[in-house]
Amino acid sequence: MKTVLGLDISSSTIGWSILEYDDNNIVLKEYGNIKPPKSTKGSLTFRVSAAYDELYDFFQEKRPDIVASEAYANKFPAGRSTARTIIVLSVFNELTSMACLKSLGYEPNRYAVSTIRSMLSKFAGYRISSKEDCFDFIKKYFSSFSLRNNKNGKISKECYDEADAIAVALTYILKER
Hints:
The chain is of the alpha/beta class. It contains five helices and five strands; from the N terminus they run βββαβαβααα. The chain starts with a strand and ends with a helix.
């Protein structure tokens, strides 16, 4: 079986998942998240350097056959992101690609959100048109995906990032088939 590592990247949480697959099976092997240092802990340069080191080691440990991530340039609807947010997100996405390239010798495959939702819709047999729809599909399709609550009793934000990472990895598999 081949392994694909899916990533959902932001400056606060990098959701990740590892799916194993062959012609007949898709198995969620593991998932989690990486927390880069918060902006209160240091400069952007410090945060990027720390995240790069952690990601480099993470790629070395997991050694997936393929890495896939969301194409971040398509994520900026008008009026919803500041220039600073876009710059920071771009930096974290590129540092992740660089850590992958330096650690594994190749760059991640990138998929637009619209591609991810389209591929999941075809696979599910019904329309998946929002982040919530995607989350619900991942919960339903992968019974080994378990939810955790935050201190307020709501589903933790990290669960959504992890589900997005699973959706990215699944998109790679579906496109390859």
